[in-house]
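As promised in the previous annual report, we have extended the structural survey to additional targets. Below is the entry for 2'-5' RNA ligase family protein.
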Amino acid sequence: MSHTPFEVGETALVANVPEAEPLVRRWRQHEIGIMAHVTILGPFLHVSRIDEDVRRDLRHLFSRHAAIEASFARIGHFPGVIYLAPEPASAFVELTQAVVERWPETPPYGGKFEKIVPHLSVAHGAPADEAEISAALPLATHIDTVSLIVCDDGECWSEVATYSLSAQA
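The corresponding structure token record, generated without further manual editing, is:
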């Protein structure tokens, strides 16, 4: 799950974690225009397929899920990647599975990896100070929205819509 170039018009669904941004910003400078986040699904549909029907379906889908009280207390690793592991991971997996159930042509990680591993990427290929990161954990967050983001030019991302997680727990 290492960093790869993105395609213009690629979209993703992410849960922003602003509380983590001050901690991880310096190692995530390649992700221009997007704050620290847990990816719900990426890539999602190409931006050319995002019409009012898709937006309505996303609004409805996410409204059936409750906000997430999450914490990040553990550092994890993929080859070349350091990440923070959210708990409960199951809440993020459920969101991913719900989106994939509605849009089966959009498998998690583009179908490259079988298992869904919710994570907040800290560093791709660059060394990060794990002791400094560990000292700032645990980190708590309240996630009540999922953002639809689009890759504008292969590097920069912008948020194009936000959907509420509004079901009562």
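The mean pLDDT is 91. The helical segments are 21-24, 52-63, 89-102, 130-135. These points will be discussed at the next consortium meeting with the crystallography subgroup.
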